[in-house]
Amino acid sequence: MAKTLRKKSVPATLPEPMPRRVEPCVATLVDKPPKGPEWAFEVKWDGYRLAVHVEPGGVSAITRGGYDWTKKFGAIVAEARKLGHTTMIIDGEAVVLDDQGRSDFGLLQRAVGRRPSSHDAAEIIFFAFDLLYLDGQDLRMMPLAERRQLLEPIVSGRTGAIRFSEEVRADGAEFFRVACEHGLEGIIAKRRDKPYRSGRRPEWLKIKCARRDTFAIVGYEPSTAPGTIGRLLLAARKGDGLVYVGGCGTGWSNKESSQLRELLDAIPAKRPPVALKRKGAFFAEPLLVAEVEYRAWTQDRKLRHPSFKGARALDEETKVYEINTHPL
């Protein structure tokens, strides 16, 4: 009884210690958007997940893996100091937008990389989508809708390095269709009535857009398993020739891998069909094509996260992807 009385006597406004790190809530991948008014939808940003910690002693940017990347995100850190609160933990995604307003992971990698780049670190934007701690209060047990009500007036309307990740009030299936048509990575669905839980959770869902096209197979890299393929080497058409667009190392069974290798070994190329030097690679005449599902193009015109879906012989009716006529 004494313990119960003491617990009830604690004021609701008593400051709670600010966590040094909060393991992020991670969305579960599903095939289609959920239905129901309890779900909120947002754009799926393609960037680095960050928690921005604001304290009287300074601001830090912590990655999903727990690394301190404060120095890489100077503009975000500087703006976080001006948000008007003594202590905060904001959950969000750091991105770089392309000229069509879409987040582009390749541009982000260049902006934070050590190599010289046409993209400056000042172009990085932090899209804030959750508030975990505010002015001495841990908010994680609050429903998402209430956390975002507190977050919105802090970051909404800003056009600098920190911006609000808006909820899209629409039917999930329709929003997903439009997102994919506009070349976005996908959408996120979140339960409005749930607290914030670390780790991969069913109350946060991600639905990814996928592209599917046909590419010429110009060779392979052997696998460590005898008689099988480690990576298929793929090419697209560019003008009258072929250009290398990356390797694909997933999507087939062991049996399919062995069959592919037998087919390619039977059509060796006298010289590489594409400008590529790769130690240990076997080059084949581009007489076979692969159906490949992938997420996007990188800035150096390579397929991002390709997955093999099937192969067939190249014929007059087959159209190999043409770099000249398709936007990247």
UniProtKB/TrEMBL annotation:
Q: Look up keyword RNA-binding and say if it applies.
A: no
UniProtKB keywords: Ligase
Q: State the EC number(s).
A: 6.5.1.1
Under CDD domains, the record lists: Adenylation_DNA_ligase_LigD_LigC, OBF_DNA_ligase_LigD
| Domain ATP-dependent DNA ligase family profile: start-end pairs | 117-241
Q: Which GO terms describe its molecular function?
A: ATP binding; DNA ligase (ATP) activity
Q: Which domain of life is it from?
A: Bacteria
Q: Which reaction does this enzyme catalyse, per its entry?
A: ATP + (deoxyribonucleotide)n-3'-hydroxyl + 5'-phospho-(deoxyribonucleotide)m = (deoxyribonucleotide)n+m + AMP + diphosphate
Q: Is-annotated flag, keyword Iron?
A: no
Q: Name one Pfam family in it.
A: DNA_ligase_A_M
What is the protein name stated in its UniProt record? DNA ligase (ATP)
Q: Which organism is it from?
A: Ensifer adhaerens
